[in-house]
Design goal:
Layout (H helix, E strand, L loop, with lengths): L7 E8 L4 H18 L8 E2 L5 E2 L7 E6 L1 H13 L3 E6 L8 H9 L8 E9 H7 L4 E2 L2
Parallel strand pairs: 1-4
Antiparallel strand pairs: 1-6, 2-3, 4-7, 5-6
Helix pairs in contact: 2-4
Amino acid sequence: MALVKPGWKIAVAVRDDLAVWQKLNVTAFVISGIGTGEPELIGEDYVDGSGRAYLPMLGIPVLVFVGDATGVRRAFDRALARDLMLSVYTEDLFTTGNDVDNRAAVAGVATDDLIVAGFSVAGDGKQVDKVFDRLKFHP
């Protein structure tokens, strides 16, 4: 039985200058990292009234924030400084087509030079709140 960590939050930040499809793509990718990075955040299987089972999902809400490039980068740096578990999607990943190339694109750039399109974090709710304090909820 999976146990969801009490007091934890999950949050995503995406840049406001991205196309809608890019925002959705970034959100999906970075959230997948949270689920694989912290299995205790995954709930139980879903089962419908006919007995059909569906894959489990994250067991706590996911908050999605938006901001300009500077604001998203500020939040990213604050997440790094707090040593929160995070996943990142850089601008370069829009030009790659597979996981191997994605990882190579990130590996080829120093942390301070990453052009962050979006990222997600999971951790203690108070620490997560401090990371996203200047971003707004995505409309």
